[in-house]
Write a structure and sequence with these properties.
single chain, 325 residues, five-stranded antiparallel sheet, four-stranded antiparallel sheet, flat
Length: 325
């Protein structure tokens, strides 16, 4: 495109600009235009959650791909468009006892679309009319961290009068994963290193009735040495005086001021320590805890920080003290 000279009318300038904006991939609009598409989404799964819904999930794109959104296709027809931070969706309004095929494409800021990833198939179960009874909660759940970004959950099967069709994993009341009716375990990926998590599992039947939560599973992912500093408060100290306990620690390096900490005594959360705006300690933090418990009482103490993403970080070292009278 030639430079626009002064004699040209404003209307012509606007028309030329509009043409360039409407076709950003044209070489004439700039030699540096981005025409490289993102990689195809990987790890696509599709799991029928009820007679009329399927839960579709895939792996997040690598940061280098610059993905800004995803398109979800059902039998070759686009049915959802999602922002980059969403990597799962429930497709609803489906027909019972029907096979479906799903694919996903990624989109970047320049409007380039990836190829479709490998397709995932799911078949919806038969509908159960007038079923309003939810399944029982999974009786037991257990879990463990298997790395800085991975955890495994296990549960015992729930029961339902018409049959369980899916198990949903929740974190903080938000569904983050779905497994099929035969599953009794799952592996969760994409977690944050050095971070405390609490997960629950619910059973679901073919009429989309969900059970209560099963027992909560609390776990902390280990730090990732390659990522830099961990999320645990450092150099934690606890000193008892008559009627008080003085705590001290160094804030973790999370990239932001840390203003909220959760204190545990004898493995139970007892209080949340909050520092208001303008009062967040620089470097070393201190807090005095008052107590009326009898002298000679043994305490073990530890604390963890609230991270910028809202999760709790890893626990500090544990300290043991004996209260004084």
């Amino acid at each position: 495109m030639r430079p626009i000279t002064a004699p040209r009318r404003a209307g012509a300038v606007l028309a030329a600009l509009a043409l360039c904006l409407a076709a950003p991939a044209l070489a004439a609009c700039g030699a540096d235009a981005d025409t490289t598409p993102p990689h195809a989404p990987a790890g696509l799964t599709a799991q029928a959650g009820s007679a009329t819904s399927v839960h579709v999930m895939w792996e997040a794109a690598a940061p280098a791909d610059g993905v800004t959104g995803y398109q979800v296709f059902q039998n070759g027809r686009i049915v959802r468009e999602l922002p980059a931070e969403k990597t799962m969706v429930d497709i609803t309004g489906l027909t019972p006892r029907t096979a479906y095929s799903f694919t996903v494409r990624a989109r970047d800021a320049a409007g380039n679309h990836s190829p479709a990833g490998a397709a995932a198939q799911a078949t919806t179960p038969a509908a159960k009319p007038d079923d309003r009874q939810p399944p029982t909660a999974p009786p037991t759940t257990a879990g463990r961290a298997e790395g800085p970004r991975t955890a495994r959950l296990d549960w015992t099967p729930a029961t339902d009068d018409t049959g369980v069709t899916a198990y949903d994993v929740y974190q903080g009341g938000i569904r983050i994963h779905t497994e099929g009716a035969a599953a009794t375990s799952t592996t969760l990926t994409g977690l944050q290193p050095g971070t405390a998590y609490s997960f629950t599992v619910r059973a679901r039947d073919g009429s989309d009735n969900s059970s209560p939560d099963g027992p909560a599973v609390a776990l902390t992912t280990p730090d990732d040495p390659a990522q830099g500093p961990g999320t645990a408060p450092g150099a934690f100290t606890a000193a008892a005086s008559p009627g008080t306990v003085d705590l001290g620690w160094t804030a973790p390096d999370t990239g932001r001021e840390t203003s909220e900490y959760q204190l545990y005594v004898n493995d139970r959360p007892v209080t949340v320590i909050q520092f208001g705006a303008g009062a967040v300690p620089k470097g070393r933090a201190a807090y005095r805890l008052t107590t009326t418990e009898p002298a000679g009482t043994a305490w073990t103490l530890k604390l963890r920080a609230r991270l910028p993403d809202g999760n709790w970080g890893a626990f500090s070292e544990e300290r043991r003290i004996t209260l004084q009278g």
